[in-house]
Amino acid sequence: MGEVEGAAPEQGVAAERLAVVRQVREGLDLFEADALVAARQAGLDWAEIGAALGMSGQAAGKRARQRYQLTDPRTDRDTGRPRTRGTYRPRTPRNADGDITANRLTLPIRPIQGSELR
Q1: Could you give the CA distance from residue 89 to residue 80 in angstroms, rounded to a whole number?
Q2: Which of 42, 62, 63, 95 is least surrounded by CB atoms within 10 angstroms?
Q3: Where is the composition biased (Basic residues) (predicted)?
């Protein structure tokens, strides 16, 4: 690591130290990502991983997704929640006026007037 050109010697040393900090961080990030992948492959859940890292399981999972783009194929990539198979819900049939229909019988929906409540 060379000194920064045009800087006083103390500034060059300070800049070199910061460069070392950056390199150590990058190395730790790679090490942490590898450890997270290995832990998940070994069957640890996020609560166990979080406890080992000194944080909640939710925080550990969020960190893994945000920093390392690690995702579990059984979870939704955007939310991190377990994937669920969708259930079919039939669309409510409506006529051209937007009224709900059933068996071709149109049921108009209108507000109830005060006199109709008696």
Answers
A1: 24
A2: 42
A3: 82-92
Q: Taken in order 77, 79, 84, 88, is the CA torsion positive or negative?
A: negative
CA distance 111 to 43: 57
| 76-100 confidence digits (pLDDT tens) | 656 666 666 655 555 666 666 666 6
Question: Angle 23-65-54 (CA atoms, 0-180°, nearest 5)?
Answer: 70
SS3 assignment for the chain: CCCCCCCCHHHHHHHHHHHHHHHHHHHHHHHHHHHHHHHHHCCCCHHHHHHHHCCCHHHHHHHHHHHHCCCCCCECCCCCCECCCCCCCCCCCECCCCCEEECCEECCCCCCCHHHHC
Which residue, among 37, 108, 96, 100, has the nearest Cα to 69 in the 3D structure? 37
